[in-house]
Amino acid sequence: MKNLLSSLLETPSPLDLQPRLERHACVSVILKGPDLDNLEIAFIQRAFNPEDRWSGQIAFPGGKREEFDETDLDAAIRETKEEVGVELSRTELLGRLDDIQARKAGTLLDFYIRPFVFHVTRDFGITLDASEVADFFWIPIKHIKDPQRQTQYEVKRDSGIAQLPAVYLDREPPLWGLTYLMVLNLLERFRGVIK
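^ thats the sequence. predicted structure below, dont judge the formating
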């Protein structure tokens, strides 16, 4: 299964925004499951902090690449360890998704996110950095694809209220925004393989 999933992430080559944008963050998209029909995906819920514009949102563990990170992959692995206490292995890496340009209120920012995809077959404990993460949880991919869970999320903007596509994951807010777009990219890559 790992070889199949890895090959789906390789072709076509993931979108690379590095030639156009310098600042970026690296995140870990962690999958688990014994077979394609039972794959689950890990999410975090960000800590609730009125100073954080992403407060309480559903996301993937990760963060900005630091000068001491030798590679983007090192940054994703380090940030995942710091935020949720999970030390991912390079042998668990499947590949990466398209880089995605960050945006605020619909305006593209000079910053992008690079998602790395891992598949784990081991159990591990979770140790949350409470200043950054409120929760770590698994969701079956088939729940994300369930039409009954598709919804809209209202976002207040200067120009009024925008209705954005989202997926209800039994908590508020739903999955929306950049994380939602990364999940769509994953599902597109796995289309025809995962029911």
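The first strand starts at residue 24 and ends at 32.
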